[in-house]
Amino acid sequence: MKPPAEDRELHGHPPIHKTREFAVSPNLQSYPDTYKSFDWDVARDWLSGLPGGRGLNIAHEAVDRHADGPLADKLAIRCVDRTGAVTDINYTELKAATGRFANVLRRLGVGSGDRVFSLLGRIPELYVTALGTLKNTSVFSPLFPAFGPEPIHDRLVLGDARVLVTSTELYTRKIARIRDRIPSLEHVLVVGEPVEGTEDLEQLMFEVDEDFEIPDTDPESMALLHFTSGTTGKPKGAVHVHEALLAHYASARYALDLHPDDVFWCTADPGWVTGTSYGIIAPLAHGATLLTDAAEFDAKRWYRMLADNRVSVWYTAPTAIRMLMRQNPELAARHDLSALRFVASVGEPLNPEAVVWGQRVLGLPIHDNWWQTETGAIMISNYVAMDIRPGSMGRPLPGVEAGLLRRGEDGRALVTDGRVEVPTEADQIGELALRTGWPSMFRGYLHEPRRYEHCFADGWYLSGDVARRDADGYYWFVARADDVIKSAGHLIGPFEVESVLMEHPAVAEAGVIGKPDPVAGNLVKAFVSLRPGVEPDDQLRLDVMGFARKRLGGLAPKEITFQANLPHTRSGKVMRRLLKARELGLAEGDLSTLEGSS
Ligand code: ATP
Ligand code: MG
Q1: Where residue 202 sits, what CATH number does that domain have?
Q2: What pLDDT, in 10s, does the model give residues 81-116?
Q3: What pTM did the predictor assign?
Q4: ipTM
Q5: Which keywords fit this entry according to its UniProt record (predicted)?
Q6: Using a 6 Å cutoff on CB, does residue 351 contact ligand 1?
């Protein structure tokens, strides 16, 4: 195993020091002390709980308590539709609409623990469905509307869906033909003209009262069912409970520095956990204004969204940042981004080049965050008050204990008689693990208890990711355990190679895999997409290879294939397993979350 050399550690990029402005942010003034004294009871005290000590309900904290307090008239959600038209919903209106939806469910006989799915674009009804479902103590499970009928079918069946909220168009195109194969599904409520087999959501909402008293809610009761991104295989259904809110709230405070006067835009669709934890729950729980956009990525539109809505905190993903990096920097300069305090990123490793670009072109720090569907909330972060190390995921948040477990032959944590080893020296590489017990830890993979059990050992949750921690406690992503490449005795993380390739001026994005080789065991192979206007040829290939060799020596790719578009999951991650399967002529596996598939 080759320890990464110190000079490669930062890829030559110095840390970005935070300005005083950030250090005095009211949330963070007492930061070092808060950090030391933090435990999850502190987070519990930030929330109000249901009146009369009747438990903890996410929707109460995100909606009703603001509607019943000084934020009643404040803008809660601004939904921008595809044409750019805006629907503004204040906290009082959100309370009324979600109260109506909860009453609709109650009238349909849908109760605690029942699964309510959504298959909707990012329109107001999606947010009302989510929060109204939680008010009713039913379970909300959002599906990404671009899924094809079969992936939708599989998820509805696995999740025992009783209710589906969708649009007439999506029903006709995707649900009608699978409906009779989902025996648990009793009600399909549609936005738009109802067709046979569906009920009119607007009419139902009109017929019920807007007042709804949230029933007693056990904080341990199931609230959300979220499917993983399917990057490594068939998606799993992760179960989260109302208690998770403690972590949504605390992480939004520490990692995103949210305040009621923030305008917060999370570009992730609620079909992915980021789009629910931070695209619905956390900003509302903080009484901030949540911005949503029904359209997909478009560089000009996105800059306009940021400028026109005076977004102050922006949460997005490396893939989007890489797409912005392909644009002429002039485009950013033409927009007034003066309200924006910083950018946060999650979902994939954030290449140091992207952090440097943010500083240069946006004039803003980009804070990487690490977490998973299973963790429910941000766990490791370059949180706002701390210096950013470009290329690092940051440090564990208050209340989160992370460790790197010694790995065995298969690349995963070595578990011997139920025990694991947790070396503490700096720069060890191990499987990233979290001490169990944080509030947003998933409580199960639905209907897969054995798989769930296998995620835990000796009081640790094993993440399946491999990382390194430097002497100052910053974590550096190496690879998913499945993606680590062993080549001629070296251990190579594709992320490091991809990050170096991206520093070449012609390269837009890279995906790196290990390709079996009789001599080296594996050789490093890179798939590279080029910036617009750059033509692939052998000369360029040699140039990129030479560039990588100079930086990476023996870790540089031995083969490079230019490819206009790399395969991505719908949540924006490079699908290395598919690059590998195609390269080796192997079965492609579950492709339900492949972008562009149906
Ligand atoms: P599946 O589990 O179905 O294969 P997935 O792991 O991609 O899909 P998610 O829960 O959406 O599903 O993604 C979590 C994973 O994303 C992490 O385990 C990690 O591999 C990657 N990831 C998230 N954030 C970061 C980050 N900041 N740096 C590096 N990797 C990250
Ligand atoms: Mg995963």
Answers
A1: 3.40.50.980
A2: 999 999 999 999 999 999 999 999 999 999 999 999
A3: 0.92
A4: 0.99
A5: Acetylation, ATP-binding, Ligase, Nucleotide-binding
A6: no
